[in-house]
Specification:
Elements: E1 7-12, H1 20-29, E2 32-36, H2 41-50, E3 57-59, H3 65-69, H4 75-87, E4 90-97, H5 105-129, E5 132-139, H6 142-152, H7 154-157, E6 158-163, H8 169-177, E7 181-184, H9 192-200, E8 206-208, H10 222-240, H11 245-256
Parallel strand pairs: 1-2, 2-3, 4-5, 5-6, 6-7, 7-8
Helix pairs in contact: 4-5, 5-6
Length: about 260
């Protein structure tokens, strides 16, 4: 499989695309592998059924903190995600968001509770089913995310990817030291801090993502994903002073087991 994928999008919301099956087929023809992150278990289940014939797509069990924060993901949904995360090899998008949009104590408490459940399920499931790959949302919450991952055992038993990392420099260094991976997109490279973080991440922990599409229920094209990845690769080449194409491809293939 790795020989057929020259590019990988390590954080893409394929389930947001109205034409997900067509995008997956076109991506395969273009040599593009996709780690399809979901926001709730229902979306994960849909993709698992919809894309059974897509060998270039790896779907993750999702429990997005925004859905937890505003109650769209209630306790039944959280428990379903917990059960699926115990068994599934890929988990994402999960994590915490402590930005002003979700800044109330009740929201933070719901998010912490849900993420702790998912982290424990991943760690315990990894011991039984093998190491898991987790794509993590960590807006204004990187320290809390790292604390949760560490306490649950995920840093030891899982492969943890910080998606679009935006924490502090100290948090970045802590995550690097903990052995985490980092998926970078072109929006991240549009900021001074993002470019500096993309320069600092060790090459053997560097991945590329798009976080596309920009909204739900849209018609999209695999070529747009490829174009975004190519722009990110060009930006990383400029920032780091070397071509990282082969390195990020090998990192992605290793994480996805292909």
């Amino acid at each position: 499989m790795s020989g057929s994928c020259e590019l990988f999008d390590m954080h893409c919301h394929l389930g947001f695309m109205h034409n997900a099956s067509q995008v997956a087929r076109d991506a395969h023809a273009l040599g593009l592998g996709i780690f399809a992150n979901t926001v709730v278990p229902r979306e994960y289940t849909f993709l698992q059924k919809e894309l059974t014939d897509a060998p270039n797509v790896w779907a993750g069990v999702g429990l997005h903190p925004w859905w937890v924060a505003d109650g769209r993901a209630d306790m039944d949904v959280i428990e379903k995600a917990e059960l699926l995360a115990f068994e599934a090899p890929y988990v994402g998008e999960v994590g915490l968001d402590f930005s002003p949009a979700h800044a109330d104590p009740a929201s933070f408490a719901r998010q912490r509770c849900a993420f702790e459940k998912i982290a424990r399920a991943c760690s315990e499931g990894a011991e039984e089913h093998g190491r898991k790959v987790i794509s993590i949302h960590s807006v204004r919450s990187a320290s809390a995310v790292l604390d949760t991952l560490e306490l649950a055992g995920c840093l030891e038993y899982c492969r943890c990817i910080f998606h679009w990392f935006s924490g502090t420099s100290d948090e970045l260094h802590r995550a690097v030291k903990a052995g985490c991976w980092f998926s970078v997109n072109e929006m991240m490279l549009a900021t001074r801090r993002g470019r500096e973080y993309a320069r600092q991440v060790p090459e053997n922990r560097l991945l590329i993502e798009t976080d596309l599409p920009p909204g739900e229920g849209v018609v999209y094209a695999a070529r747009e994903i490829v174009d975004s990845i190519e722009r990110t690769l060009a930006g990383l080449h400029e920032i780091r002073g070397k071509d990282v194409r082969d390195g990020v491809r090998q990192n992605s293939a290793a994480l996805l087991g292909c």
